[in-house]
Write a structure and sequence with these properties.
- The chain is an alpha+beta fold.
- The protein has 2 domains: about 100 residues, Metalloproteases ("zincins"), catalytic domain (Zincin-like); about 45 residues, no CATH class.
- The chain contains 5 helices and 6 strands.
- Strand 4 and strand 5 form a beta hairpin.
- The longest helix has 22 residues.
- The protein is elongated, with a radius of gyration of 22 Å.
Amino acid sequence: MPDQLHARVEACYEQAEAFFNKRFERPKVSFKLRGQKAGVAHLNTNLLRFNAQLYQENREHFLKQTVAHEVAHLVAHQIFGGRIRPHGEEWQLIMRGVYELTPDRCHSYEITRRQTSAYIYRCACPERDFPFTAQRHALVRKGRRYFCRTCRATLVFSGEQRID
């Protein structure tokens, strides 16, 4: 899976080097990005992170647009410095001039949300429950306490779990 993406990153750098007549250090590439973002460029660590799920589901557009979008951030940072706006003139210049692509800020890929668990907590109030995320539930298990704003009782795990 990542071979085509690595080849596209390299091709983008070669285009930028030919355009600017300058050598660029290649970034580390990671596929450990989840959620709604298709890609992220970490400017100070020269790292590109891509969403493997969105890459698989939108391969052609992802390779053409998203990879160039993120590489353009790193190239703009290396040429113009750290005081430029993320999707400002310099980045747009690279997207249009180097890659001949529309400088779209956001993707329009379909996002499938993962199922989440809600841990149900209760207080002394009748007919009232508080759905906690897995992260908040873990904090309670480590000793953190949460209180009802109405009755001020400590919220207690009911043993119920809902899948949303």
